[in-house]
Amino acid sequence: MSESGLRSSMIALSMCNFMVAFMVSGVGACLPSIGSDLHASAGELSLISAVYVLSLVIFNIVAAQLIAIMGQRRVFLYGFAVFLVMCLSLAFSPTVELVWGQRFVQGAGAAMVATSSVTLLISIAPRSMQGRLMGLLTASTYVGIALGPLVGGGIATMMGWRWLFVVLLPLGLLAWFAMFRTVKVQPVPVPTRLDLPGIGVMGAGFVLLTIGASCVGRYDFASWFLAGGGVVLVLFVFVELHVVRPVVDVRFIAAHPSLILGLFAALVNFGSINGLLYYFMLYLQQLRFLTPLEAGAFVALQSVTQSLLSPLAGKLSDRIGPDPVSAIGLAFSGAGILLSTRLDMQSSLYFVGLTQCIIGVGLAFFAGPNTLSIVRSVDASHTPEASGLANTMRTLGMLISLIVVSATMTSYLGTHGAGPDMAEPFLQGMRLDLRLFVALNVLGLLLVSLRIVNTWRCGLGKGVDCMPDPSFFENEEEGAGVASESVREHPDSSGKGGK
Question: Cα–Cα distance between 15 and 10 in angstroms, integer?
Fold first, then answer.
């Protein structure tokens, strides 16, 4: 692909990812307005987020198999089209029940965009630039997350929550047409079908886990749903072992230690960070009496820092490799969380902002580089699956942190809410979980260190899981790498990848 075509494609790709991320955090800020307008209870509002997360978990993996059948360009364009249509539909939704269904479908579109974005980037970018471009893509995502609560809350206050789904539609349509025009790749037919039995069992397992995670601390049956979800997912593994073309190739994953290490590093890091955000919002609003907007501004420091430093992390990944950069990120994340354990009722708000910035530095150096390392740890035909699994592990981390935080708060607060009269037990429970989150980041650092050692051993010719992938180096002189066996350059592009 030409330099101008690559630049145009990355701008469009970043715009799409910005919009998807913006809608995720922006909708969260509008939930009170949605509840007031649609007469929805707190439990019904929580399901709006729960069904979206559930859809992401399922379709991040399904999207990988769709890429093998349709190609990443079509999956991306179809997925983003579904996302935009649901935006328009949500603006006119008359009931909260319909919102649940619309957000589930929208989550499917968002998952298709997230999974295919990484494979598209690897496909159109030369290997020497992939880290830097991954950093830019990560930055666009976290700019969207940072702006979502602030802009979304402002739109809901001044214009009403329905306008949130309308104001960015022109930007979304522009990005869709830009991707349609600039990226010209077509799939090579692959003799495969969707693994419907596997998808069904996997979906059932994640439904049970999501219900259980949402009900921890509120209903006694939550543990039964969690246990049932775990059993069903174990059954899913056995089902996949007997499917010719599984949606998750369990045997392939088991044979690639570097992939496993990267996936679990993503799980523990994002699990700890999501739980931390929950505690910070409660601490700032319920104990320090900040408004939702003020609390959101403090928490947004994390995303702002991450968006500013992600391009630098990408450049370092190109220079020294993504694994050492990921290790630096985990160290910063753990240090920021460790500092947060010192928070009390007299802590300076400047100190709160400092911890958010340090954690943001950690995420900037971990998120993009770890994803790049994951997709590089497999052969070209499994790049979409690796991308989908990485997104799924991050979402699973969110569910796990929800379970941990809910169980801890129930144990320390019982039926009481977080407030000045319950400040001491709240802080005790928060510190307990923060220490756990520090330990998780230390575990993640250990996993990435093992991956670095594995790569070093491969360099000495002694390693296991040493998988040179010639397709990553194809067309390097023309400035293009190939990320998937199922996708090749358009025959009319003469190896340049598009217009």
Answer: 8
* Per-residue pLDDT, 191: 56
**Other Cβ atoms within 10 Å of 121 Cβ, number:** 26
Q: CA angle, corner 395, sides to 308 and 377, nearest 5?
A: 75
Three-state DSSP class for 150?
Answer: helix
**Mean pLDDT in consecutive groups of 10 residues from the start of the chain, 499 residues:** 74 85 78 80 73 85 85 89 92 90 92 87 82 84 77 78 86 86 63 80 88 77 89 91 84 86 88 80 81 76 86 90 92 94 91 92 91 85 83 82 80 73 87 92 90 73 45 39 39 38
Phi then psi for residue 332, to 5 deg, are -65, -40
According to the model, what pLDDT value does residue 475 have?
40
Give CA 235 to chain center in angstroms: 25
What 3-state DSSP class applies to 190? Answer: coil
Using DSSP's 3-state secondary structure scheme, residue 487 falls into strand
Q: What is the DSSP-derived secondary structure letter of residue 59?
A: H
**Cα dihedral sign for 65, 66, 72, 77?**
negative
Rg (CA), the chain: 22
**pLDDT at res. 479:** 39
| Dihedral over alpha carbons 349, 354, 360, 362 (to 10 degrees) | -140
What are the residues whose beta carbons fall under 8 Å from the beta carbon of 66, sequence distance 6 or more? 75, 112, 194
- Say how far apart CA 249 and CA 259 lie, in whole Å: 12
Cα(238)–Cα(250) distance, integer angstroms: 9
Six token digits for residue 234: 């174990």
Predicted pLDDT of residue 337: 93
DSSP code at position 248 = S
Instruction: Note the pLDDT of residue 331.
Output: 94
Helix/strand/coil (H/E/C) assignment for every residue in 153-222: HHHHHHCCHHHHHHHCHHHHHHHHHHHHHHCCEEECCCCCCCCHHHHHHHHHHHHHHHHHHHHCCCCCCH
**405 near 278, Cβ under 8 Å?**
yes
Find, among 88, 250, 60, the residue nearest to 172 by Cα: 88
Q: What is the pLDDT of residue 495?
A: 39
Give yes or no for a contact between 138 and 390, defined as CB atoms under 8 angstroms apart: no
Closest CA to 78 of 55, 104, 112, 114: 112
Distance (Å, whole) CA 25 – CA 39:
22
Q: Kindly report the length of the chain.
A: 499
Question: What angle, 0 to 180 degrees and rounded to 10, lies between the N-to-C axes of helices 96-124 and 3-38?
Answer: 170
The total of other beta-carbon atoms located within 10 Å of residue 101's CB is 14
Kindly report the backbone phi and psi dihedral angles of residue 186, in degrees, each rounded to the nearest multiple of 5, phi listed first.
Answer: -130, 145
pLDDT, position 340: 93
